[in-house]
Amino acid sequence: MYKKILLPTDGSTFASEEVERATKLLSDDGEVIILSVASKLTATTFQSKKEIEKVNRAMYEEAEGYVNSMAELFDEDMPVTKKVIVGFPAEVICEFAEEEDIDLIIISASGKSGFHKLIIGSVAEKVLKTTQKDVLLVHGN
Question: pLDDT: is 45 or 47 the higher one?
């Protein structure tokens, strides 16, 4: 059983499977932390600061929506903390897991294959390669 479980989410369709696994693996005195990483754009010469702020606010609110949607899948008595951080997903997930002394990261795989997987890689793959924490990878179809 794990005392602190991190569930990073990007709004993917595998949230219910991640929640089910977290519920089964969480110790009686444990805590689940749901994390979504919001991207942040910086202004260029073709965009106004106001336009960029509007887009960044929308991306942050979208990330909050992902966290809130996943939190609703847990029973009311389950200790769930919701968190949104701005940054690069894999980097933020790994740093957060280390800072918060997370015991297990449960993350879904995108299911990508072939050339794109080799060149781009997924957030889950980057987390697997970077973190020293236990990771449970949820595969979808």
Answer: 47
